[in-house]
Amino acid sequence: MSTQGDSIHHQGPAFLSWRKLHLSKAKLKAASNTSALLAGFAMVAVVEIQLNNNNSDSEQLPKPLLFLFAICTTMLVAVHMLALLISTCILPNMEAISNLHILSLVNESPHEKMHMYIELAWGCSTVLGILLFMVEVAILCWIQFYSVLKEAAYVATAILVPFVILFIWFAIIFYRNLVAHTYETRKCGIQELEELKHVLEMGDELTTTREIRNGPLVNII
Amino acid sequence: MSTQGDSIHHQGPAFLSWRKLHLSKAKLKAASNTSALLAGFAMVAVVEIQLNNNNSDSEQLPKPLLFLFAICTTMLVAVHMLALLISTCILPNMEAISNLHILSLVNESPHEKMHMYIELAWGCSTVLGILLFMVEVAILCWIQFYSVLKEAAYVATAILVPFVILFIWFAIIFYRNLVAHTYETRKCGIQELEELKHVLEMGDELTTTREIRNGPLVNII
Amino acid sequence: MSTQGDSIHHQGPAFLSWRKLHLSKAKLKAASNTSALLAGFAMVAVVEIQLNNNNSDSEQLPKPLLFLFAICTTMLVAVHMLALLISTCILPNMEAISNLHILSLVNESPHEKMHMYIELAWGCSTVLGILLFMVEVAILCWIQFYSVLKEAAYVATAILVPFVILFIWFAIIFYRNLVAHTYETRKCGIQELEELKHVLEMGDELTTTREIRNGPLVNII
Amino acid sequence: MSTQGDSIHHQGPAFLSWRKLHLSKAKLKAASNTSALLAGFAMVAVVEIQLNNNNSDSEQLPKPLLFLFAICTTMLVAVHMLALLISTCILPNMEAISNLHILSLVNESPHEKMHMYIELAWGCSTVLGILLFMVEVAILCWIQFYSVLKEAAYVATAILVPFVILFIWFAIIFYRNLVAHTYETRKCGIQELEELKHVLEMGDELTTTREIRNGPLVNII
Amino acid sequence: MSTQGDSIHHQGPAFLSWRKLHLSKAKLKAASNTSALLAGFAMVAVVEIQLNNNNSDSEQLPKPLLFLFAICTTMLVAVHMLALLISTCILPNMEAISNLHILSLVNESPHEKMHMYIELAWGCSTVLGILLFMVEVAILCWIQFYSVLKEAAYVATAILVPFVILFIWFAIIFYRNLVAHTYETRKCGIQELEELKHVLEMGDELTTTREIRNGPLVNII
Amino acid sequence: MSTQGDSIHHQGPAFLSWRKLHLSKAKLKAASNTSALLAGFAMVAVVEIQLNNNNSDSEQLPKPLLFLFAICTTMLVAVHMLALLISTCILPNMEAISNLHILSLVNESPHEKMHMYIELAWGCSTVLGILLFMVEVAILCWIQFYSVLKEAAYVATAILVPFVILFIWFAIIFYRNLVAHTYETRKCGIQELEELKHVLEMGDELTTTREIRNGPLVNII
């Protein structure tokens, strides 16, 4: 029975790594879906917007607005393409591991080494990318409304301001909560595994039988 | 046998939390799908609408209509982007837990701590977002029909009014029903688990065997 | 063995409710997919159609046609948004239950209480929504052909008439068949469960063993 | 052991019906996916085509071409909407049955009663709908090329003719092959089940054990 | 034990047919996805391209270019629609068989009889369809650049030429490799099955037990 | 017991090949999804961009910009079509093998022979394709801004430059890390399998029983 306890002791960090693998995979998938969609819409907006649709009698769009539009569009597409590149590069390596459902292969998944890039891809895609998409829509409103009714564009921007603040505030809150949450549960997770190991070493035959038959559970712990 | 009873007693709240995890996950997925789609259509509408397509001989669009269009579009995109952000941030953490199918990890999922944000994302996306989409289409009808036939735009608005009322009424009904429903079933759920614990402590060997072999059931209860 | 019989007797209505849950879930999913797609196309049509594309020399579109277009578009979007709202509200609660694969939780799913709304969402989306989409395309044909060749629009409408009649006739046939079918099979279902209970009370050891090992079957019956 | 033989004898027609259920489900899903996509493209074509884009100096589109375009578009949308309606109506009822994986419920699925409508939906969507889509593209080529280079439109039509013939020929071949194939295999299927019943009645203990453990197989036969 | 050996001998060709069924299914699915997407883009291109967007002062598009565009577009749509028809016709019959996971039903799947059509659908969709799509984009570049800068169109064509050659060369290499590969592995497959049969006839009790419990393996071999 | 050890020794390379199969499959799927999407957007951009939208009074687009646009668009579509061709050709052969879940068939999958082409498809689609998409958006910005505000186009390009550098740097880092990672883990993998073989030869009865029951694990190792 001690063999089993050892194997769990041995698999403790492997199991945590396995969970990190699943978390990273879910993050990259979410990033990749959001990125492709929003970058596509941004490109359509660039192609179909008409910057000089007014004849010489109506006033021209102001320069800062055009600068903002050029910067925001390029940033939006670049950020999402970067997220898509990172996601397309790392995800296949992680899916190839996680689809085999063999815990001991978890060390061969690149999600620990590439941790920083995964967080970067996810952060680029969600926080920066979605924020830039909101700003892009506001700029498009400005371009469309400028020669028609400037006040409407001011109102649209005024509405967007609290949302952007809310947005950044949420991003900070989420980040803190998740970091705190991760740290806390990781500590608990190790304690729990220690206790589980203890219980198993003490465990009677019935418990063993029950656990052995719970296919997926045994595969992983 | 008492060990098993204890383990169920211990897992009672964990099991309820596991169910909340599944509910939150389903809500966020629904919110994320709806949000991306409707925000995309709203952006296309902003880019492709022609606010000054009439030459100087036809009458201009009235200012309140343009204000409404700017406000509604910005709100619509902002609300859906907020829902998308919340969904993209929290969902990976929950999927990483729920894909492992291990009940004891449920405490590490952020769905309890982030409960308020999940409800906010879902509420934003469904009730507010879908309502704003309906209003947006009505405004688009106004813009298209204004210089052609104003009466058609009035009729379109008149048709929309009962739908909006129906809409808000349904939202209230759903909210009340679900809240009442949740409260009621949660109470029943605890009672049921108590009874289940009792039955299992009394249970004969056959029952135990049967339950042990029901793989997925045992994994969870 | 009588315990098992009792448990099936106890689960008889629960099992029927479980099946209703699956049926409602499938209906809402179908409604939600169709709704989002068709409402999106309707919005694109509103934005991109040009109602005053003809200069003063060609004749204007007639008022009844414009009224029809305004009414049909608004109805189409409103009907699909209503179906989407109902679907997005109820579906997560049902998926959270059905994903756990535990029969006894079926009472906590809102599909019985919300039965009327589910049928409404499905009816709105399929029968009314698809019919309105067909009418919308006919109106778009009218708008496009009016100043070019009115006869082509008449022919298009003439072709659509038998389809609409076929459509309504099918909807009625389907409704009757399904209602009759449901009633009939529900009666059979109860008889069958009664017989199954009887067989199980009489059953020999071999039968029991065979059934116990059929994982998914035992989970549900 | 004779009990088991009887149960297979009893389940013979049920099993064939189960297979028909799977076939009908696959057909309706294919029909529904194709229909929504092609109808959507047809609607976009109606909205965005410009029938009077030429000023008075270039020649008008001929009347038969406009008639053809109006007829083909309306037919195309109507045929696909009909297929979508039938698919959305019947599919949920079949999915609710097939997702439970219980063979004895197969009689409650409406796929036998509604057989004619399922074949109609599938035929509409695939044969007629895809053929009309090809013709629609040819007509669009005509409209676009008419005032530019009529010969190109003639060539496009000439290329399409052998494809349409190939198309109809394939449809007939497929239909005959599948009907012949279905008839033949159904006869074999019944013979095979008879033999299987025989083998099982003769079977020794080892065979029985092996079959019982093959979960999915036992669930169905 | 000889019974088991016989059953494997009997299932040898059935198993090879089962694998061909999976291969054909995967090919048709890939063909159907690619076809719908590329045909849709081609139709959008036909509707939205403006062939006479230049006033009388700029030069007209040359006739051979217009002929090429008409031919390429019609071929592209016809080839993909043909692939879609074949795929929609045969795929449901194959999915209905493969979803049941019963090896003995493999003879009822039409993938052997319809082998030629499946290869045709796949070849149309991938090799011919993708090649035509590349040519279509080159023609669109020509149309857009003709009245602006002819040299750019020449450069674009010059870039495409090596890709088309690479394309055809790859198609030939793939075809040869896969045909050779299939032939070789099929020979090996039969030898392997012969050896497996031998091993099983010689096999000791332990081996048998191990194999019997490997659910999915036993289902298929 | 030595038989089992031998079988693992025999399956050592097969298992590594099985993992490579999963990795290649995941890569090709990612490549195919990205390719279809980005090529589609590129085609829409070609069709909808207006290169001569300015009347004779505004200045013409410069020749190098038009050359760049023609080259970049053609390369973008050709690269993605090549990736799509390779993916559509090889993926069905690999899916047909991997869906059967039989380890011994891994030699019949073409992923070893076609290794070079798979890497080429993946590299084309991700690194080159995504990079070209970013450049394409920058060129589109130039075309749109050229006659309005050239400085905005310069700023957009300036923003893109660090992203492209970051992009290439990431691609190199990823490539090195993954190659190093693969080499390292492959060495470990062989050692681990050697040790596993050793443990199994030494293993007691309990271990054997536990492993045999872990269905999916045994299927693969």
UniProtKB/TrEMBL annotation, chains A, B, C, D, E, F:
<feature type="transmembrane region" description="Helical">
    <location>
        <begin position="67"/>
        <end position="91"/>
    </location>
</feature>
<feature type="transmembrane region" description="Helical">
    <location>
        <begin position="28"/>
        <end position="47"/>
    </location>
</feature>
<keyword id="KW-0812">Transmembrane</keyword>
<feature type="transmembrane region" description="Helical">
    <location>
        <begin position="120"/>
        <end position="146"/>
    </location>
</feature>
<dbReference type="InterPro" id="IPR012446">
    <property type="entry name" value="CRAC_channel"/>
</dbReference>
<protein>
    <recommendedName>
        <fullName>Calcium release-activated calcium channel protein</fullName>
    </recommendedName>
</protein>
<keyword id="KW-0472">Membrane</keyword>
<dbReference type="Pfam" id="PF07856">
    <property type="entry name" value="Orai-1"/>
</dbReference>
<keyword id="KW-1133">Transmembrane helix</keyword>
<dbReference type="InterPro" id="IPR038350">
    <property type="entry name" value="Orai_sf"/>
</dbReference>
<comment type="similarity">
    <text>Belongs to the Orai family.</text>
</comment>
<feature type="transmembrane region" description="Helical">
    <location>
        <begin position="152"/>
        <end position="175"/>
    </location>
</feature>
